[in-house]
Amino acid sequence: MDELGGSFKIWPPPRMQDVDPHDFGVMTGAAGPRGRDLNPYIPRDVDQVIQECLRKDRAVVVACERGSGATRTLYEVLNQVLPREHVLIARRPGEFDSADLGRLDHSGSAVLWIDQLGAHYGVLGPRLLQALAQWVRGEKRWLVATVYDRDLLRDKEFARLDVPVVELPSGLSSAERAAERSLYGHDDVREMIGLTPPERPRSDLFSGSVRAAAGSFTGDTAITAAALAERLVQSHPEYAGGLLRQVTFPVGKGERRPVTGWLGAVRDRSGPPAEGEVIDGRQVLLALAGLDPALGRSMGDKALSALRAESSSSKAPQEESLAASPESFAVSPESFAASPESLATSQESFAASPESLAASHESLSPQREESGTAPGGEREQRKHVRLLVDDTVGTDGDELGRIGVARALQTQLRSLVQELPGRSFLVHIDGAWGTGKSTLLRFLRELDAEDDDPWLVVEYDAWRQTRGGPPWLSLLQALRRAVRAERNGPLFALRERARLIDARQWLAAGLMAAVGVLVLVPLAGVSLTTWGDLAKLAGGLVPLLAALWLFAKAAARFVSLDSRRSARQFVDTRADPMEDLAVHFDWLLGQARRPVLLLVDDLDRCPEPFVIELLDAVQKLMRERGRKEGAHALIVVVAADGRWVRSSYDDAYQAQSAAIGQPGTTVGSLFLEKLFQISVPVPRLSEELKSQYLTDLLARQPGKKRTAGATELTERLKNATPAKALEIYAEAEPIERVQAADMAIERLVTAKDAARETRHVLEPYAPLLPPTPRAMKRFVMAYSMLRAVRTAEGSVVGVGPLALWTVLQTRWPLLAEYLQATPESVGLFHVGADRLPPSAPAGLAPLFTDPPPELRLVMNHPAGPLNESAIRECSGQAIAGRREA
Questions:
Q1: Predicted local confidence at residue 524, as pLDDT
Q2: CB atoms closer than 10 angstroms to residue 793
Q3: 418, 477, 711, 865: which has the fewest Cβ within 10 Å?
Q4: CATH 3.40.50.300 occupies which residues in the chain?
Q5: 90 φ, ψ to 5°?
Q6: pTM of the entire structure?
Q7: How far is CA 609 from the centre of its chain?
Q8: In sequence order, which residues have a C-beta less than 8 Å from that of residue 485 and are 6 or more positions away?
């Protein structure tokens, strides 16, 4: 019976009187069980009704709004009525299987406690209610559940369950408030909770400058996040070292909320401040940038990094101080641990802005303290740490597993080139700003240079080219420069210009030459003995030379293609300019005489029209090439935030969006699927590893890269088979996994035996894929890269959940993106459309309210299911395969 513990939070089931409130689901404010020392309970008017239901019907379902205190109420009632009965605490929706109820020993008595019954029904369907009906028919069996939506209560299957439903009001009655005053001496407890001591008033959570900025907006006027950010910067232009003073905030765009709504979201994102501290303006700006990506983009990476550095270096006790003391620039591991948002996923982002680094250097130099030993024998905590300089990380200095991901991607691409020579491939490196996309591109370039058969690398900074004319022109110039460096410069330039002259221009040149001959031949017999003869010669040559000069000048404009003017004239004077350009691009690629690797960076900083025009140019002019014998491959790697690219296409083709009849997809997501063969997320450290990694980094001696444990783990992985390597990797501590990720990725992904093993274990998932020839190959590539990324993050996700998550991302990308952002939304399946949160994209409503059979199969597959915890692990938000103590 031990295997039943997978459906229940505690196994074997304890008696009700021994259950910790935290394990029962009561919001105790603690991260884990801490005993039964709870705040005084305010008796509810429905307590007696619930007790009578348990005595007479042995079942009760409490219907209420979230935050009404139902869990605490049921906890107290069960301890009064059934304290010595064993209680089965169902796990979260997606983790509880109602089939396990039929496998229990029917001789004993037990209470079944299910929170969020509606969410469980969305995952399990009618079989859940059938299992519960069977459960309550048994002797000495009790059922206790909560329902936070009324849709389930109206379901016919629920009516057959025939259990009493008790409504629990969200507010407190007059009698309950009287009891509250008797217990707490006041009635300031939050109405929606009613069971915990009062929190500090919301305004007291923020500094004076934040309250002043918020107070400048009247009443419940809905404003954008950018409007509040602009007001804060106007009051404090010194934020981010003054970098925000020049920013044009998009105050008229984006979601609108009352200012109290924005401050509430900021508090939820930042967490409550510690005692004696407040949330200051810098923290509010950082949180707003996270809540509104458009605002974050307008502020820029440099300003955001400076804000993080300033926010981490000083904490205002009650009001912000405009002048920070030198000591406030000292960085400690604790300051990072207290603010997870201030941690980035790469070593580069740990450093502060140049201004704060200079101040830090000055403050550290005269007063740097080395750690010592306290009189009691314990090691004193280091007050100041060495300065971390924001140097560019090379392939030999990476400690976050990204070089392993880059090597895995290079292996995949070279395999494709060998299998399909002469073809073109587009790869998408996906990640938000500042996550290390450019670092992955640089690693790809450096790895290619180390290869025995290097490709021709062409680098293209899209953001710098936004004002350089049409995207195809800047692409052509970048490719031309790289190829010219490989060939004879002047000769190559002449050959290229000659190719750009079409038949009409060659005819015109021939006619001009003929005219020149006709003019010069009669002059050949002229004797230059008199001034009259010279005048005759000049009269014939000057018009000819002028005509030739004008022709050459005009021709140069057509055949140079090195300026916007020449590009415009080229397009205007060709009957089919795009076809001519495609032929010329193909010729240039052929001149490389080896595969070409085009690295496109910073596309997610470009305006929407440029994004679309650039990708269209790559698709039409470079990728759609004729498959000629002996042609070399073209590999295009684009680093950009996928949301930015998708929204660009969504906005551009908004009128056509109604024609897309596929729930869970948009015009933009379909374009992304069509454009890119592989999409690779950027590795990132989970929240629980960030502070641990930074502490290790700061405490380490300069030049020392790995802990002894990581070195030992690397040695153990070297000669292990893929299956054994996964087992060894799972046994290690997460931080050691990150440091040994390069070797782990090699054994799990890039090695030849690993590739064979991957194809073998993924074959059972082929029926879940679309019936297209390329679906399986793309699925294997996507899974392999996702395995490499998760391994780089120190996570060991099971084959089944990771394969199912890859299928979900491939077939329903919008749904996967939404579940990644809000994993708890997995409990929304089968709810009514009116119960979906406003943040859910409209296109997802059909998938949630009436999931198609193929989606049900993926979400509830025997190798899964894809529940909340699995989604967090597969998407890199939580560490999978954590070693138990």
A1: 54
A2: 27
A3: 418
A4: 2-184, 402-500+561-679
A5: -65, 140
A6: 0.53
A7: 23
A8: none
